[in-house]
């Protein structure tokens, strides 16, 4: 079926069958490969035959191009028998021409002319030659001779041709470039043409829907279109198709069709296509020319041809499948040198380092390594690290390491490997890190990499080696100062002050920091000294840990999180800023950032970073009293990064778990965690404080009071010695105060609680609320209520839910001892509700009463009229039950989806029906009957 060829067919028909001008007629059908030239030629021949025109067909081919008169022989085969037998068969019966193999013999030229005259004397004649560019030269000369001398309008010649290259071009020029020649050039199918073609195969609806996609993949090339359709039908025959019905999917037949299109263009086009496949996105005509050592003019011609044929679009393959099949078509002994040459050319042109590395990684040459290769691979690795392409980065670094002959260069590569993989698997890099400790301390490693190695050494407790490396960097900074070195040293100094302050060999480098000021929004660069993001974040953390919370510090940390994107080089900065918000009790903001970072690192697969943020999320949950969340996030942190991978910072996840299990009453689980071996160096950093404090809480909860007191005191002594004794860090005084209460030391407990209150200040914080609760326990019974009510208010405002449940439980007990049983029951219910929501199972069990009695039984016990309770409507019963459970009117309204006014009206009727005057007199058992189903 001819598609979008009506105009061309009409033009040829007018020329060949309707033109009244004297003399022979000649038409040339040209176009890209597989554009339908042959089909149009056959259509013309069929039309001629139907009109009574004698047709002499011939097909030229490269396989017969070197045989003289091969095409002429085909023409003679279609002549009448008396002419065919009367004439010798060219190329077989004719003796060789003495003037050369490409020259036609004059007698044969004259005989062919007489034959044409005889054939056109009694009927019209059409000579139709397909792929005339492959015709042998003697045949072409005979054809040109005959056409030029035959003046009969009965003779018509139609030929199809591809690109004119090679030795036949001059001879064809004689025939095809005369003024009377009609040239018809076929363009690829448009989208409309593809739609028409697809309609026959897929139906009108599917053709309309998918024609554009088929056209995008093929450029309207008929052979490629046929390959796509054949692939589709092949898939349908094999089984269910998982792609959209009718949509194009490149399969084996399409790939083979594309390869055929490339090969039909000849060796020159094939080499260009292979080179484009090799270069990918980095392709350009000059680069192609250098790569395959072909003139740019020829490259442009090949690119134009491959574009016309539908293989290329804007010098890129229309389908990745074509690129793949062309790369597979290259032999390995050819592919390797091409990759190496492409890498060198791209490197010399300053191309994208990753493009250079792609070629180097595809072929590692056995010959001596050129000097530029290790540097090119290093550049690519650094770019891949920045783009979070870890596997590519490691492949580049490992190959560069194999290629490097310079010792210093090899050390830099090792350090870069550690940096690249640390966020994903620190354990896999421990051996490399240890091997870098010596060179870092001796100055063999550049300072930028040395600073990163120091952070790793600190995390694994190798303090002596870290000190030696720090001393080396300090000497380098003194000899050649620079803002970058100064920032790096101050960053390390603040890291020591906030996290690793207890090592004599590191104290000379410890930097206490200064109160954090505002970070200028209009700063020209976030990396400038001294207000760079890392210094701002670490300075904020040090301020909160050592001096307490202030708004400027919190705002500085928030600003860092808002402006610094998490990466390998900024993870310390982001982590410090987030820790600042956690210790400052900005729980809502910290939770939002932490959840966002957990999601980001989880998607990246950065297990170490994910673990660090999970443990911070656990710390947030513990500080607000969400014990189950604490366990969940801390366990996830240890699952993502095993304990050995935490090094000396393992005290943080373990401390969170022990603390949470102790508060929940899971003392066996806490004991099992404490039985695990931990590095001794852990007790000399801030994370070890959290472990020590958690161990003390466990000992207090399990009755080992003196051991608990020892650990609480040890926490306090370390914090004071390290200048980290702020209420934001750890409330060790409150733990010690609770222990003294258990030992009967009321005065000491009161003194510690008062100290903590003074440190906490007047602002609402969980620490202040807890201090008020413990201080109340040291006061006479009649003074406790006010302190506990104040504690409840502070804890409610600051979000310390577990501590609030404990304060409510103490308040309930105080009211009970004072004889106010109704208020005691109300406070108990509130405490129980909070304890359950926090997951504080042990506290919840201690608040549980005997099995609840129904409202009727309580009414009988108090002598109230049971009929009064039966008069309550379902809505009134639900409201009363929730009010008895300690819910406020607003909370009841939200829970029951009614207005506050409706709640008030229900309560008024309840009071009247059961003959009470205030909320506190509601029967305690109501909440067990209705509240939990409301």
Structure description:
The protein has 934 residues and is mainly alpha-helical. The chain has 48 helices and seven strands. The chain has a five-stranded parallel sheet with strand order 2-3-4-1-5, with helices on both faces. A two-stranded antiparallel sheet has the order 6-7. Helix 6 links the parallel strand 3 (125-130) and strand 4 (155-161). Helix 36 (732-743) runs parallel beside helix 38. The protein is elongated, with a radius of gyration of 45 Å. Mean pLDDT is 87; it is low at 515-530, 850-865 and 927-934.
Stretches with pLDDT under 50, minimum 5 residues: 515-530, 850-865, 927-934
Distance between the termini: 75 Å
Mean pLDDT: 87
Give me the number of helical elements: 48
- The total strand number stands at 7
Placed side by side, the strands forming the largest sheet appear as: 2-3-4-1-5
Helix content: 55-70%
Shape: elongated
Proportion of residues in β-strands? under 5%
Q: Sheet with the most strands?
A: 5 strands, parallel
Helix/strand/pairing category: mainly alpha
Question: Keyphrases for this structure?
Answer:
single chain; 934 residues; mainly alpha; five-stranded parallel beta sheet; two-stranded antiparallel sheet; 48 helices; 7 strands; 65% helix; disordered C terminus
Please render the helix and strand layout as text.
Elements: H1 6-18, E1 25-31, H2 37-50, E2 54-59, H3 70-77, H4 81-86, H5 106-122, E3 125-130, H6 137-149, E4 155-161, H7 169-176, E5 182-186, H8 191-202, H9 204-218, H10 222-238, H11 252-264, H12 267-279, H13 285-292, H14 296-308, E6 312-313, E7 316-317, H15 320-329, H16 332-348, H17 353-362, H18 372-386, H19 390-403, H20 407-421, H21 430-442, H22 447-459, H23 463-479, H24 483-499, H25 533-547, H26 551-563, H27 571-583, H28 587-604, H29 607-624, H30 627-640, H31 643-646, H32 651-664, H33 667-674, H34 686-701, H35 705-721, H36 732-743, H37 746-760, H38 766-777, H39 781-798, H40 801-817, H41 821-838, H42 841-847, H43 855-862, H44 866-870, H45 874-884, H46 889-896, H47 900-914, H48 926-929
Parallel strand pairs: 1-4, 1-5, 2-3, 3-4
Antiparallel strand pairs: 6-7
